[in-house]
Amino acid sequence: MQILIRDFITGDRIEGYYLIKALNLKTSSNNKKYLDLMLADKSGEVNAKIWDVDQEIEQSYHLGDIIKVRGDVTLWMDQMQLKVIRTRPLEYGEEVDYDSLIPSAPMKGADMLAFIEAKVSALEDIEIKRLLEHVISVNREKLLYYPAAMRNHHAIRGGLLYHLYRMIESGEALCKIYQLNWDLVLAGILLHDIDKLNEMESNELGIVSGYTTDGQLLGHLVTGVVAVDRWCEELSISHEIRRLIQHMILSHHYEPEYGSPKKPHFAEAELLHHLDMIDARIYDIEKATNDLKPGTFSEPIFSLERRRVYRPILEE
Ligand SMILES: [Fe+2]
Ligand SMILES: [Fe+2]
């Protein structure tokens, strides 16, 4: 029976399907080769070792594969580790419950995209509407599964769309309160991270294997501004709309040390930054507290300035 990684107990022998989220070939101190794996399911990750590998074994494991594993749960330097006894790749036609294996957004990609498209089609500004419809149509396939990050917030299948979905929900409410231009805010939300689609390499399971060269050297703010330039050129969008959206992309990380060469210079850009922060931070807090017992603290969370997050004791 499939046991979730969250429920592993030291000393147990487990058997189940897990996803290879990272793999490295290493050499032990007595000169034997072993595979160092990070196995994952939707509940978490566990380090696993396969000892004494030869070239044939080594070549049969790939990043993003799902494998069947039997192993013993051990403790190594205070960390849970799986000592693999047997593994095999999936056999042709073998049924696997992907939803239990792959950490995914709680909503289906197609539903989130339909929600976003309905918001775009209700816009009043015809230029912004034309631009956003175009961007969605050229990026539709990747949008459906891309995560929003390699490690930080929304590093899950469909994470980018889920990030946009929640920003739209909170952005629409705040826009009404502050009487800001919704068309511009929606454009900022949909385009602020759009070039994450080219910044990271992700497979269809939402697993990121690394940053692209453009991602490393330029980052999604700069390449996003360049992409908007190209789209606006193709669609003959006015200069004012183009530079407003480009400014929103450029300033959404706010601080130069986080990649923004400019701070927000108008209200919609200021709001965009805060919508982004709210969603990223709440996500990280949710993630850190999900598996905590009420009344306890998490480990220090790097993306939250090493804060330890507390799970309040509240009636369900
Ligand atoms: Fe960003
Ligand atoms: Fe973002």
What attributes characterize this protein structure?
single chain; OB fold (Dihydrolipoamide Acetyltransferase, E2P); two-stranded antiparallel ribbon; binds fe (ii) ion
Number of domains: 2
Number of helix segments? 11
- Cα(first) to Cα(last) distance is 29 Å
Strand content: 15-25%
Description:
By secondary structure, the chain is of the alpha+beta class. It has two domains: 94 residues, Beta Barrel (OB fold (Dihydrolipoamide Acetyltransferase, E2P)), CATH 2.40.50; 186 residues, Hypothetical protein af1432 (Orthogonal Bundle), CATH 1.10.3210. Helix content is 42%, strand content 22%. A five-stranded mixed beta barrel has the order 1-2-3-5-4. It is elongated and about 65 Å long. 32% of the residues are buried. The protein binds fe (ii) ion (2 copies). The site of one fe (ii) ion (FE2) has 5 residues, from loops.
